[in-house]
Design goal:
With 383 residues, the protein is mainly alpha-helical. It has a domain at 46-194. The chain has 15 helices and 2 strands. It has a two-stranded antiparallel sheet with strand order 1-2. Helix 4 runs antiparallel to helix 5, helix 9 runs antiparallel to helix 12 (279-305) and helix 9 packs antiparallel against helix 14.
């Protein structure tokens, strides 16, 4: 009896030790979940400001090289002061953003106004696409389409134009302050970290992020511009009313990975079908547009990107879905630059390196040697 009693108490002590050993893990897990919930709440609540700030940082990184180039220029015996170079770059950015937002808003407004004219024809045109499935299916689709108040959605979308203007103004302000602070960035970084060697390493990581995001945006801009131009020519050949608007929207939507090209092609197909009402013509236009999108997006784009962006395709979809849910359409545009930043940071933080392996395309995140090598070294696997 005494032996059984001792064995019982020994089991209780083992269970207590196991429970006490597991307690820190449970607490850590709970803290991680709470922290994630708090961060997610802040991301959603402050999304307008955070989207503007993220856009400003990307624009600032894109133009830092331009500022350095301007600052190296000489006017006779004098060199262009850094503040003058920053001011010139800020004026160029502000002008470009205002022009781009004005053109984009005018084209979106043209599409929305035309869409309002098409709302009466839209249900019948969409239902006709399902005629091959039988009259009952076509009638069901027609009834479903007629139950949707498209005009209210279109007017709601038009009412958000003011948000774009406010966002552009906020981005210009953020970029201006970033330019004003840039000359003291390295000093602040060194003093903040307190170790010159570590500050230099952090500076190299930041430079790697900037180089890779810049390269991604430059390639994406070139490919999107070619795609938009070809879609515009296609629309012109078939005399589609909104050829210019479709070309510009295709250019913009191609910045959204994977999904953007599908939306652009669907928009073209819908406009063409509503205008012509001929399924054969619509099918030909969609096939040509799909071929253009496929060649540019699946052949030319990856070829130019090379291995500079070792991003997992599945990771891109997850990032697109997450940032789209948190920040909406702007989050979709920013999803890849944010993923590039996460990949580079996690690659150089030992405890986060498993995350970098998951985010990378081949399970090969950035190595320490890549921080010192130019980006061209690993564009085509040479690094």
């Amino acid at each position: 009896m005494s032996h059984q009693h001792q064995h019982f108490h020994s089991g209780q002590r083992d269970a207590a030790r196991t429970a006490s050993a597991d307690m820190p893990r449970v607490q850590t897990g709970a803290l991680v979940i709470i922290a994630f919930a708090v961060v997610l709440f802040l991301l959603v609540q402050a999304r307008f400001m955070l989207i503007s700030l993220a856009t400003a940082i990307i624009l600032f990184s894109l133009t830092s090289t331009v500022i350095n180039f301007i600052a190296r220029q000489r006017l006779g015996p004098f060199r262009v002061p850094n503040i003058v170079a920053s001011l010139i770059a800020l004026i160029l950015i502000a002008t470009g953003l205002l022009i781009l937002s004005g053109v984009l808003l005018s084209q979106v407004n043209t599409v929305l106004v035309t869409a309002l004219d098409y709302t009466a024809q839209l249900p019948a045109a969409v239902a006709a696409l399902f005629a091959w499935m039988g009259e009952d299916t076509e009638a069901s689709v027609l009834n479903a389409m007629r139950s949707v108040d498209f005009s209210s959605y279109i007017r709601s979308a038009a009412g958000r134009a003011g948000d774009v203007t406010q966002g552009v103004v906020l981005v210009i302000l953020f970029v201006g302050f970033l330019f004003a602070e840039r000359i003291w960035f390295q000093t602040k970084l060194t003093n903040f970290i307190g170790d010159t060697a570590r500050a230099e390493r952090v500076g190299k990581i930041i430079s790697s992020i900037i180089r890779r995001i810049n390269y991604y945006l430059l390639v994406k801009t070139a490919v999107s511009a070619i795609t938009g131009a070809l879609i515009f020519l296609l629309a012109q050949v078939y005399q589609i009313e909104l050829a210019v608007a479709i070309g510009i929207l295709t250019f913009v939507l191609n910045y959204i990975p994977n999904v953007g090209s599908i939306i652009a092609t669907g928009l073209l197909a819908l406009i063409a079908h509503v205008q012509f009402g001929d399924p054969t013509t619509t099918t030909i236009i969609v096939m040509i547009a799909g071929a253009i999108q496929f060649i540019n997006g699946s052949v030319i784009d990856p070829m130019l990107m090379g291995r500079a962006l070792r991003l997992s395709s599945f990771g891109i979809i997850i990032s697109l879905a997450f940032w789209g849910a948190v920040w909406g359409i702007p989050g979709m545009f920013l999803s890849v630059p944010i993923m590039v930043m996460m990949l580079v940071v996690c690659s150089h933080v030992q405890t986060l390196r498993p995350i970098a392996i998951l985010l990378s395309r081949e399970g090969l995140p950035e190595s320490e040697q890549m921080l010192d090598a130019p980006i061209e070294r690993d564009l085509f696997g040479q690094g």
